[in-house]
Design a protein that fits this description.
The protein is built from eight helices and nine strands. With 240 residues, it is of the alpha/beta class. The protein has a domain of 157 residues: Rossmann fold (3-Layer(aba) Sandwich). A six-stranded mixed sheet has the order 5-6-7-3-8-9, sandwiched between helices. A three-stranded antiparallel sheet has the order 2-1-4, with helices on one face. A hairpin with a 2-residue loop joins strand 1 and strand 2. It starts with 9 loop residues before the first strand and ends in a 6-residue tail after the last helix.
Amino acid sequence: MRASASDLPVMLAEVKVVAGTVTILDDVSVTIAAGAPTILIGPNGSGKTTLLRVAMGLLAPTRGRIAWGGREAAPPKKRAIVFQRPVMLHRSAAGNVRYSLAAAGVPRAQRNDRVAELLMLVGLSDLGHRPARRLSGGEQQRLALARALARDPDILFLDEPTASLDPAATKAIEDIVRAVAARGVKVVMSTHDLGQARRLAGDIAMLHRGRLLENGPAAAFFAGPRTEEARRFIAGELLV
């Protein structure tokens, strides 16, 4: 059972992130509410990963405010993140999930059933015994998703989870994203693949040079982007 307090919505207000003399996020204001996946798009270096890290609570903004469910100081118990290149522990696939369940405080008596449930969700039931570091890239990414879901999060942040994966592995990840979203978990995912964004997004947030250019329903964005940069990006032109 989930506790009554939720980390949703996540609200960023005039968030700025500066590293040295470089502005990575520039006065970004956005609300991430429950519902279908929010997909972050934009060229490389636009600030997508930094926005995910700030929204997760891993990086404090240089300026601006962030709140989770109306609280500005909320431990990340109901948030989870999967990075583009997750690190596998030196244990089996099932052992990786079991470790995450223990870290999340799941009672020992419930862990075996939860391991089986999570491995089934990500299509790794037959590979639970295999050393995690011997799994393929796509299998490791699915295992990373199972570990993140061990936290029973309200919101799941994914940083380009299908980068460098082949089409079959990409489809497997997309199927998991749909299944997770159908269970009521809010997914916020960055991608450089516009086809993937069209397939998965309920909402689109487009970043360029650290600024949030567009934010709204995916269908409206793709049918009629409001900014010249978005029109060029959808057309496949290089943004610098």
